[in-house]
Amino acid sequence: MEQINLNTNAKNTWxxxxxxFAILNAIRIVLKELIAEGTPAENFVLVxxxxxxxxIVDYININSFYSLHxxxxxxxxxxxxxxxxxxxxxxxxxxxxxxxxxxxxxxxAKRNVDITMIIHNNRVxxxxxxxxxxxxxxxxxxxxxxxxxxxxxFNPLELMLxxxxxxxxxxxxxxxxxxxxxxxxxxxxxxxxxxxxxxVCVTFxxxxxxxxxxxxxxxxxxxxxxxxxxxxxxxxxxNTDTKIPLGIFYRxxxxxFEANFHRLNKDVDRINGVKEILKNLNL
Amino acid sequence: xxxxxxILIGGKAGDGIDKASIVIAQMLSSIGYRIFVHRxxxxxxxxxHTFSIIRASDIKIYAHKEEIDILIALNAETLxxxxxxxxxxxxxxxxxxxxxxxxxxxxxxxxxxxxLKEENAPELMKNSCLLGAFGKATGISWDIIEKTLxxxxxxxxxxxxxxxxxxxEYAKELISIExxxxxxxxxLTGNEALGLGFVAGGLDAYxxxxxxxxSGLLHFxxxxxxxxxLQVIHAENEISVIMMALGFAYTGKKxxxxxxxxxxxxxxxxxxxxxxxxxxxxxxxxxRTGPSTGLPTYTGQTELFYAIYSGHGEFSRxxxxxxxxxxxxxxxxxxxxxxxxxxxxxxxxxxKTLAESxxxxxxxxxxxxxxxxxxxxxxxxxxxRYLNTDDGISPLCxxxxxxxxxxxxxxxxxxxxxTTEDPVITKQMQEKRLRKLEFLKKDLQExxxxxxxxxxxxxxxxxxxxxxxxxxxxxxxxxxxxKVIQPVVIHxxxxxxxxxxMIGVRNLISVxxxxxxxxxxxxxxxxxxxxxxxxxxxxRPFSVNELENNLKAL
Lengths: 283, 554
What we know:
The complex is a heterodimer.
Chain A (H helix, E strand, L loop, with lengths): L19 H17 L7 E5 L15 E3 L5 H11 L4 E7 H7 L1 H10 L4 E6 L34 H8 L3 E6 L4 H12 L4 E6 L9 H7 E3 L8 H9 L9 E8 L18 H12 L2
Parallel strand pairs in A: 1-2, 1-3, 3-4, 4-6, 5-6, 7-8
Antiparallel strand pairs in A: 5-8
Chain B lengths: L3 E10 L3 H14 L3 E7 L6 E11 L12 E4 L2 H7 L9 E4 L12 E3 L1 H8 L6 H12 L4 H11 L4 H14 L16 E3 H11 L4 E4 L6 H14 L2 E4 L3 H13 L4 E6 H17 L3 E7 L16 H6 L8 E3 L4 H18 L2 E7 H5 L1 E3 L46 E3 L13 H25 L3 E5 L5 E4 L5 H11 L2 E5 L1 E3 L3 H7 L5 E6 L5 H7 L7 E4 L8 H9 L2
Parallel strand pairs in B: 1-4, 4-5, 5-6, 8-9, 8-10, 10-11, 11-13, 12-13, 17-18, 17-20, 20-21
Antiparallel strand pairs in B: 1-3, 2-3, 2-14, 7-14, 12-19, 16-18
């Protein structure tokens, strides 16, 4: 396998033990594999939002669009529509896409645009130093909720299934084997794919032990069955102390958004076209 | 024989007033008249009072007059509201079965329901009946009416023609309109002119979210998507709209967006991103009466400062305010080119008047559009997206490009597009981005008509105006002997050209559709002040008579 160097000169500023390293290492390996298997490196575009997760694009020497907080999806959608031959891989956080940018995320699933969303779901705001997010458990004592989170978390997998996502998975940032598998399958999936990665923030919400005791990889799960996917997605509600299934919950094939656009094989003379329209408007 | 005529047609929303006014405009256009259609409608789907004034003349016109020659009333409210503006109080055409008049009523009553019944025609054909009557009342020959209806209402045309003919036969000739010996011109809205300008300027993608008065641009370009291979998206909100436009631009696709003030508020974070990441985008900001939801379907010129100062942080941008369809076309194309040449956002200030009024459009009046090629990477390795150059403009290349890693970034970044917080690089990059504005300003000063001057060029009395107000100022000034100065480019302010335009002016009167005088305040930054302000902020544009009276009263 040709060893392409995907490192940049950017200094990594994540905390020691941050779950983001597992995501970075896994995606680097997957990108190298895909490049070795024939996808040109320049065909990948990485898009990130704002938050600790987003620094990942500075650490990978691949085309990237370091976007705004919550605004990963619209940028990625347009890049894919502009050129469907590109592989668009998005990194986003739970604050980023489940909070600030939730509307965009729902529409990405609804449209089934062929992009891959990797959600660094640490269930806390890291970069703004420890507030609750849409997936923090109720009662969570964050800096904006010192007496406990008054809200219940929502279940992003259920939301994504309900919104029409055609590939829904969950991973965990302890170990990279499952992440590699999920990332690769998601990137190769034709349609909108999302991987909710339980990514641990060691500084503000260290859940390694909690997750280690509860996560398991799904076995005998029919990922083509939507109802079964919903049942499995509901098994853990991001709030109660139950077992936490990992793996691919759902996958299906359906038409993609970017296939709906008009494209011309050759240039048309714009000025003549305009003149023609004006002629038709002139009775 | 008359060479100018104003027709008012009114009814309730849902009566098809808009369509009927287009047919009248086309009838008159096809016999050589130049057209302006003023549209007044409330923000609702059915009911209310809606009307259009179609003004036709042998010379190009861009504003309406209050006095009208013919009134077409689909309901009693229209007669009540507008009959007083008729020059001849009997020149009105009405539905005599809908509107009960005194026995001595002098207008032309058409028993529309009876005619429809007789022809077994549906109710929605009542306008065809009135259009036929209108044709007769103004002495337009039946073959012109027939031809226009065939093109504008192709559905069930035979029945429509029968109904129109009945209306034609019922009416009597009130005015005789002369057929003019000049070519006819296409009639289009400002939104359509902007759309065609974008197409001519090489637009690849358009993203929008419906909002009056810019929705028409979204509809128009969506209709052209197939013919020109445009990617047109109606996104989930305006935040997404501008972010999608930037995504398109990242791949090398020239993109534009359109909205009104409220939507532009949502776009502000994306606007700043465009400035920071140096990703070009053209934003059509269609102004309406604000603040907030305001009067959604009425006009205003209240966002001049907002366009110049919107967004957070300091970055380069261009702001242009075209005043008519020809300028809209030219500057849509040119803004797109310049946004790409200088890699910055460009805002086109439109408003309800420009966006939705209809104008006779003359492509031959428009000067050649400079292609404004942008700087392409010369393949010298390594590629640096933000190479710091003398003029601040970095060479572009687009994904997928072999041997280039193209990184754009909302954070402060180094030449490679990698995030930095280094004080030296921060300063350098801030200066790089701002430097582009100086080069743009020079380019505009030397190569573009950024300030237009009209009327009596030697007059000491001048009107200062901008955007859609310009044509009405020009028309009145030609009568009163004033000079008119219109800064078309608002930012970077064309100081040199403005200075030249002001030579000899001793009495400067600003005319604006806002309550504070925004252009008036802007020129103060450059050492100019006005002697008088005429401001209108009731949501309606100036009519010719109204502005004339205001000027005379000074």
